[in-house]
Amino acid sequence: MKLATKPFVALAAALSLSACASVINEQRDTITVEGVEFTTLTRTWQQDNRTWTTGDVIVFGRTYGCDTRTPGACEGVVTRLRNSDSGRYRDDPGNAASFLIPGV
């Protein structure tokens, strides 16, 4: 039962962040890991008088949270996902939550 609630909690968190919030800035960039390019996204969100920034990298057609402003952070996520032989990261939407970048 514990595993069944994980995707639901991640989905509910994502929906609550995006339900009334809007993206006021989006920056796309690329990183290269083992000769393969991956897209990173840094988004600044706004809701009421509050703003926050999230970071993601797109791997296997899904977004995975990473700190796009810390060198090597997203590359580490990509390496971990590519080296995973269980497929857990590819199929588990609970791992697809954006990384909240602190202090922004």
How is this structure best described in words?
There is one protein chain. 31% of the residues lie in helices and 39% in strands. The chain is built from three helices and five strands. The chain has helices at 2-18, 73-83, 88-91; strands at residues 22-33, 36-47, 50-59, 62-65, 99-101. The chain is elongated.
Helix content: 25-40%
What is the overall silhouette?
Answer: elongated
**Main β-sheet, in a few words?**
5 strands, antiparallel
Radius of gyration: 14 Å
Distance between the termini: 36 Å
> What do the pLDDT scores average to?
78
Task: Estimate what percentage of residues fall within beta strands.
Answer: 35-45%
Please mark out the parts with pLDDT under 50 across 5 or more consecutive residues, or reply none: 88-94
Number of DSSP-assigned strands: 5
Secondary-structure class? alpha+beta
One letter per element, helices H and strands E, the order comes to HEEEEHHE
Chain oligomer state: single chain
Number of helices: 3
Short description:
This protein is of the alpha+beta class and 104 residues long. The protein has helices at 2-18, 73-83, 88-91; strands at residues 22-33, 36-47, 50-59, 62-65, 99-101.
Strands, helices and their partners?
Layout: H1 2-18, E1 22-33, E2 36-47, E3 50-59, E4 62-65, H2 73-83, H3 88-91, E5 99-101
Antiparallel strand pairs: 1-2, 2-3, 3-4, 3-5
